[in-house]
Design brief:
alpha+beta, 10 helices, kinase, Diacylglycerol kinase, NAD/diacylglycerol_kinase_sf, transferase, kinase activity
Length: 326
């Protein structure tokens, strides 16, 4: 779809030679505890390919923005590519630095669900992801904004951030596996969730809703998997909001099940709609926890959701026959 950034993006595609130096922001805390082996594999494959690279190793999440900015400055000076190696939170932090710079952005996914990478056919397997990275094309992709801060997959408030916080606790105890995420969700939902009163303003229309959670999605794969029909509107420079009606614990378990089987859009207990911009006031709250691509932050209300006027210049596999979103 044509947009204001079409010309710069087209020029960037033409300039991509396959010899650009890579500046890799590597989060050693992502993945399943194999950071040393994964980093060694990345270095080996890039050296074998004769590709110039620099790896910025991050030990603590708070270092991500700093190292991402350093990588961006180096890539800008040397006409290079910034690469994020980690989970969705790592990809988010590095993308936040890359987006305003307009640089090409590559990813080596290492998280639990990897919705962003899977959407564009980028494998979680290091060798496959590196092969795609070394023979890639640029695809401009949509980015969501919450108060000007980018998110790639989703942003949320209420119950969903609590689910993510609890999930991290369980992962530290039991490991980064999908069944651990499910177990922690069951435990979290067993507690009576707090209800938020939201004032929603979008397209000149105002609505007041009570809900345990609001999730704003920007990822077609995740929306497809839970069965939200408005996923088609993401192609129209829009985001998709999902709001659960006030329900008890058993009904929340039901919603979890409906999402797991891809039928969330069929239940009357979830309201979903697409929008270009959305303002959310939370009654009685000046600040509230929000989750953005799995990372928790405090934000001041009202909250403003929108689509970034800039597209992220993502490196995707050149061979589309290899795309795998499973």
């Amino acid at each position: 779809m044509p947009n204001a950034d079409a010309s710069p993006l087209t020029e960037s595609v033409a300039r991509l030679t396959g010899n650009e130096p890579l500046f890799v922001v590597f989060n050693g805390g992502s993945g399943s505890g194999d950071a040393i082996e994964t980093r060694a594999r990345i270095e080996q494959r890039l050296s074998e390919a004769g590709r110039a690279y620099t790896i910025f190793a991050v030990d603590r999440p708070k270092q991500l923005p700093q190292f991402a900015q350093i990588a961006v400055e180096r890539a800008r000076q040397e006409s290079g590519i910034v690469v994020a190696a980690g989970g969705d939170g790592t990809l988010n932090a590095v993308a936040a630095a890359v987006l305003p710079a307009g640089l090409p952005f590559g990813i080596l996914p290492r998280g639990t669900f990897n919705y962003f990478g899977r959407t564009y056919g980028i494998s979680r397997e290091t060798d496959e992801a590196l092969a795609s990275l070394l023979d890639a094309r640029i695809e401009p992709v949509q980015v969501g904004l919450l108060d000007g801060r980018p998110f790639l997959v989703n942003a949320s408030l209420g119950l969903y951030p609590q689910l993510l916080e609890d999930r991290e606790v369980y992962k530290k105890m039991l490991g980064r596996r999908r069944w651990v995420a499910l177990l922690s969700a069951l435990v979290t939902l067993a507690r009576a969730p707090a209800q938020l009163t939201l004032d929603l303003l979008s397209h000149g229309q105002h609505q007041v809703m009570r809900t345990p959670t609001l999730v704003v999605g920007n990822n077609s794969l995740q929306l497809e998997q839970v069965g939200i029909p408005e996923v088609a509107h993401l192609e129209d420079n829009r985001l998709v909001a999902m709001i659960a009606k006030p329900v008890g614990t058993l009904a929340l378990y039901g919603l979890l099940l409906m999402g797991a089987i891809g039928r969330l859009g069929d239940t009357s207990r979830v309201i979903s709609f697409s929008f270009e911009s959305l303002t959310v006031r939370v009654r009685g709250r000046r600040r509230i926890k929000v989750a953005m691509d799995g990372e928790i932050h405090w934000a001041r209300t009202p909250l403003h959701f929108s689509v970034s006027p800039k597209r992220l210049q993502l490196l995707v596999p050149r061979d589309t026959s290899r795309l795998d979103r499973s």
